[in-house]
Amino acid sequence: MLPESEKDMKIREVQDNHERFEVSHKDEEAGDILEETAADNDGIFPDGGIQAWRTALGGFLAFIASIGYLSGGSVFQSYFQTIILPDSSPSDLAWINSVQIWGCFFFGIWSGTLSDKHGPALPLALGTFFMVFGNMMSSLSTKYYQFLLSQGFCVALGMGLIFTPALAIQSQWFLKRRGLAVGFVMSGQMVGGIIWPVLANRLLNFEGVSFGWTLRIIGFAQLGIMFVATLLVQRRFRSSVEHASLPLRQYFTDGRTMLLTFGIFFMNLGLYVPWIYITPYAMERGASSSLGFYDAAILNGGAFLGCFALGLVADYGLGIFNSVVVATFACGAVAFAWIGAHNNAGVIVWAVAYGIVSGALQAIFSPCVSELAPTPEVIGSWNGICITISSFAVLATGPIAGKLLENTGGTSYFPMQLFTAISLALAGMLFMATRLCVSRAVFA
């Protein structure tokens, strides 16, 4: 057997000490141990360079093509409701979008493990196939069950295979700038959430392109973007024998990780309701179909700013756990304010505000999960397990919100708005408990 190289020994030492360093790297009381461990990690987590930022760019593009398409889902929710499937109830139609969101999360445990074992290219390529195939089949669909299978489950499988590897792999390249890097990747979701609604609005409402060809054009664009993204994204750590299997027991026996997981569950239960219903809500408040389409883009524009802002604040002062607590309570407060948005101007202002705080929240949860992973090589699996558990929250969020709207005869969004705000408030309390368990230092 060949002797272990100096670099391999260095990597192994850092992996063994990863959890200790990750939890305490902002604790001022760590002293000399902190400085020594940080120095060791400088060579393992480059926090920059061509390969690191190339991987971040690949994740950014992957999120434009996949999750960004999902972020503009309220456009299709409105189009289904008014044009394609007018006889279907709001709660039935909400299942299509909820299944897509659920798929992004549910398949995380398998896509994260695939990424850890074989690298991110395999799950990204498989995800591209199913996402594009689902859109192509949806372009041929005419009945509700056909849209649910193609636009719902097939696209969901593709997005689920893309989401976790594109996001979690960044934590193998970044440590001190992890919040910024993940925020940059997540901002791809917001860019896509601007591009796809504007493109769909232009094709459907101005150019007279059919719904089927609109989906085909989107599918071909996704294929091109994902081809480039798959080439750019690379892993830094290869899986070792002892971590070849899924670390389920280790995950479920870690108290801090479970608290964080429950917090993310309640966060996802309420967070995405406005993303699904912003367009039909705006149209119900008097917006034209064109302006309703653009409200989804406005929401994503605000989220784009939030991703970067909180990442910078977390990396250069506040700390990621403090940041997730502040962002969650702020998001809950803005969700309560949704009740007061009654006209076009109010909806637009509210969409910008909610976009900023919800975008910030979406960008910061993955660095928190990665921070609690025992070693860098299982970051993908750690994120995957958490995201898969959270999938059941996002699966329920659309139908619950749709049922709440349906119970009022489709005339009042108040129960839905209250549900969103309370879910986020509960998540904030759980994140606060997690933060106190991780560290009692002021900045963590």
Automatic annotation (TrEMBL):
User: Per the record, a Pfam family?
Assistant: MFS_1
Could you tell me the membrane topology recorded for this protein? Multi-pass membrane protein
- Print the keywords alphabetically: Membrane, Transmembrane, Transmembrane helix
Judging by the UniProt lineage, the source's domain of life is Eukaryota
Single GO molecular-function term? transmembrane transporter activity
**Main location group:** membrane
| Gene Ontology CC entries for this record | membrane
Where is this protein localized, as stated in its record? Membrane
Q: Where is the Major facilitator superfamily (MFS) profile domain?
A: 51-435
Where is the chain membrane-spanning? 60-81, 93-114, 121-138, 144-168, 180-199, 211-233, 258-279, 291-313, 320-341, 347-369, 381-402, 414-438
Q: Which InterPro entries match?
A: MFS (IPR011701), MFS_dom (IPR020846), MFS_trans_sf (IPR036259), Proton-linked_MCT (IPR050327)
What PANTHER family does this protein map onto?
MAJOR FACILITATOR SUPERFAMILY (MFS) PROFILE DOMAIN-CONTAINING PROTEIN, MONOCARBOXYLATE TRANSPORTER
Q: Which family does it belong to?
A: Belongs to the major facilitator superfamily. Monocarboxylate porter (TC 2.A.1.13) family.
Protein name according to UniProt? Monocarboxylate transporter
